[in-house]
Automatic annotation (TrEMBL):
PROSITE patterns: HTH_HXLR. GO terms for molecular function: DNA binding. It comes from Kribbella sp. HUAS MG21. Signal peptide: none annotated. Keywords: DNA-binding, Transcription, Transcription regulation. This is Helix-turn-helix domain-containing protein.
Amino acid sequence: MEPRSGCPINAAVEVFGDRWSMLVLRDIIFGDRRFFRALLTGSPEGIASNILADRLVRLVEAGILTRGTAARGQRARYSLTEAGIQTLPILYALGNWGLDWRSGSPELRVRQQLMRDGGPAFLEELMDELRARHLDAKPKPYDGPSPLERLDAAYAAAAENGEAEQPSS
């Protein structure tokens, strides 16, 4: 997929310039949804199946995801590439902007706040964990819960306090 110009911003926008691509990446990274059905039913925004299928193809063609081979009747699993893992700082920046300038549900905002509080070190740990999950890199030892476990615990605590909205299925 050749970009329309040599501008790096244009090249990135051509891959990520629609809301669905970023939300699919969000769900793969933070929700560990790696199969079509999980991505389809787990999206609180209610992505349509044809849009999801199109975005997955585009993200694979752009080298952001890989699609595992699946035998007939089996589900294909999507994995992040290193380029896909490197989208985390972009999602982080967008999330920080959203924390500052937009409202949202407490249980989803708490994860972004945890990442913000953890700063660059948290992002690096999270990218290392994603490499272990998606690229079969050797997992790094954690002194306590992993970054994804901390994000899930923050969400669960917000849900337990009655702050969570029920996701649509």
